[in-house]
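Dear colleague,

Following up on Tuesday's group meeting, I ran the structure prediction for the two-component complex that the binding team flagged. I've pasted the input sequences exactly as they went in, so you can double-check that nothing got truncated or mislabelled along the way. The structure tokens for the whole assembly follow below. Feel free to forward this to whoever is handling the docking comparison.

Inputs:
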Amino acid sequence: MPKIMIIEDDPAIREELTLLLKNEGYTPLAITEFTDVPGQAMREHPDLLLLDIGLPGKDGFALCAALQKSIPAPVIFVTSRDAGMDEVRALSLGGDDYITKPYSVPVLLARIKVVLRRTGGGPEPADILEAGGLRLSLTKGVVSAHGKTAELTRNELQILACLMVHAGNIVSRGDLIDTLWDNQIYIDDNTLSVNMTRLRGKLAALGLPDAIKTRRGMGYQL
Amino acid sequence: MTLREFLSERMGRIVLQLICAGLAALFLFATGTQPGILAILLLVLLLVFSAKQIYDFFHQCAYLRELVAIWDGLEQKYLFAECVPPPKGLYERRLFDLIRRAGQAMTGTVSDAEASKREYREYVERWVHEIKAPITAARLICRNLDGDTRRKLIVELAQIEANIERALFYARAENPEQDCLFRQVNLGEIASQAIENHRSLLIQSHVRVETENLNHTVYTDEKWAAFILGQLLQNAARYRGAEPVITLCAKPHGKQIQLIVQDNGIGIPSHELARVFDRGFTGSNGRSRGGSTGMGLYLCKKLASFLDMGLRIVSREGEGTAVTLTFPAKENLTKL
């Protein structure tokens, strides 16, 4: 379970971020004393640091330099400063990523995942998903069941993957559209319906016509 | 100053001198001076007078030329009186002193105004950074709510953010060189950043966004370009029609890259099209829907001109609007 150290002086953000990361299966570690941050980091050995720039005492830039010396963990700057120069400076100081506040929660989580994976601290993303008698290969874009396979388009793949990850739970149309937008597919309600119909057609051809159930007024369920 | 202007200004003095010379000659003639001597005397007088006028003319011309040269070389024109050599004459010197004092008062006022403008800008920037902390916290807290309420709240938060962003860029547009950072950027990245910034508005408006052929490299400031694009996306979402679709598509145009943002919204009446970039212009669409500030496109135009970016808009009422952003070719970049 990767340990993530949160260096953030706003108490509300600190608390919520701690809760969020805990729910996502990380071990969050929020700092409340900003006097000896490198020392605290050395004692705790986090796998990743979320570093604010505007901090009491030493600012994030100075801290980043000090932290780089003491521990090997990657640093993601999370800040409300969004001038181009700040970003360049942060990255040239050895920051691994730079996220500006206010960030959307999925974006923050996705970037944390990417940095952890790149530095070898996180789990490899699963390529094969299995749920409800279906087997989905994300890299090949192929779904198989009962020995038969079907090729999926980009949209269908993302829809099915989202339903399979949340297998058994209801996924609302809004959440599905949100997920697709995260994957740079910018579709509207109608397009989702069209893709859903096509996806069901393909699953029916595999012998699973009712794999995706419609829960009226709530969404879809695998 | 031409010779004629000089002479016409000196006419009074010249006439007076001639009258005095004439009177003196009359008096000398009447008291029995020989006409020959008189003629010589008059000639000498005439020569002295003319020499003085000619000297004055060239002297003044030279002084004026010097002043003009200083004026032309001066960046802050209001510092003129501080930089020029004072005139010789007593009367001129007094006048000059008064002008110099007026200039000093002006310089003080100007630097006060500049300082307060700078302070205000700094305050706006700091405020924008401070306000982002509670918004971030609110976004994180939203996550605990159920789907529909969360989505609605996130749309409202995004609306707040969009307004804050406009205020920030309005402040920055006053001193663009402080923030502008030209880099080689992929157009697709700018587009996805802009779409991401306005995703909740776009999703809530049931907009379908299509991107085509965005894999081009452009030379621009990523943040500013994403801001401009974001304004266009917001407009397209606000003034949407039924089944809204926004298409972002890029194509090379000589050495430049053009990005066309096309929507199928309600369009802009042709007689208003020329004024959409004016500050505070809201148009009939903006007025009938409310909530329009008339700042979005004005800011776009202003920022685009600093980025050397072309910004053109065509629209047909009831059919849609297309905005073309022309990114500069690398070798044409003059600023920075």
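Residues 189-205 of chain A form the longest helix (17 residues).

Cheers,
M.
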